[in-house]
Amino acid sequence: MKCAIMQPTYLPWAGYFNLIEQVDAFVFLDDVQFRRGSWQARNRVLLQGREHMLTVPTRRMGLDTRICQARISERSDWWRVHWRTLEAAYGKAAHGAEVLAILASHYTTEASPLLSELNQAIIEGICRALGITTRFVRATDLGCAGDRSIHLVNICESLKCDQYLSPAGSREYLEQDGFTGLTTVGLAFQEFTPVPYTQYRTTGFVSHLSIVDVLANKGVGFTKDYIG
Predict the structure, then answer these.
(1) Cα separation values, 191 from 16, 123, 213, Å
(2) Residue 7, pLDDT above cutoff 90
(3) Please, is 124 exposed, middle or buried when counting C-beta atoms within 10 Å of its C-beta (0-12, 13-18, 19+)?
(4) How many CB atoms lie within 10 A of CB 27?
(5) DSSP string spanning 88-138?
(6) Short-list 94, 83, 87, 90, CA closest to 221
């Protein structure tokens, strides 16, 4: 069985879903330190032809706060602002109505007060729309100990995986930690290069935006192939 392990991020880019699509089990790494200002709470969309950052406001918390404990601030109607921004950015795009329908339920007062749960719900909802049937697991449900690579090894072994697929950006620290010497689990690295596509209200191409951009501009069918 092949697995991948990633922090639950907000409105992830297409490469995140490429990783999910390639494995049998995908683990939301929600038991590690929450970092304010990281992709855990923000991502980029294209608004009027320019990059625009959407950030979910979170409560001030201690440095030992884990991702699963991070709470969304109640002092802001952030969800209303984000929804209006998404409508303005993609409402008139070729497939804008389609993607907004996929996301609508997450931008209400009923949304979870926990950032990790919000992110996971959005990710799983997009996967359902794309027909991705990968099994999702929360690291907090596994209770695995260890730091860095040892923590990843313990997660892989608890799931009885024989191969771990890692994002290419983690190669350096995995090799520094000697991942392959810690376990019999095989190690492979993701290979995904975003290919330019036509975007709404711009003649150029802005890469590494939220997958919402691909969906709104090109639709579900194209996006399935794009991440495949």
Answers:
(1) 11, 20, 21
(2) yes
(3) middle
(4) 28
(5) HHHTTSTTHHHHHHHHGGGSSTTS-SBHHHHHHHHHHHHHHHHT---EEEE
(6) 94
194: which DSSP letter?
P
Look-up: residue for tokens 């950006």? 169
The two three-digit tokens of residue 18, written as one number: 């490429």
Instruction: Provide the number of structural domains found in the chain.
Output: 1
Question: Residues 72-107: pLDDT tens digits?
Answer: 998 888 999 999 999 999 999 999 999 999 999 999
Cα distance between residue 97 and residue 30, in whole Å: 31
Whether the CB-CB separation of 57 and 72 falls below 8 Å is answered with: yes
- Alpha-carbon span 147 to 63, nearest angstrom: 16
Tens of pLDDT, residues 183-201: 999 999 999 999 999 999 8
User: Which residues have CB under 8 Å from 64's CB, separation 6+?
Assistant: 33
DSSP 195: P
Domain extent at residue 82: 2-227
Gap between the terminal Cα atoms of the chain: 18
Cα separation, 88 vs 203, whole angstroms: 18
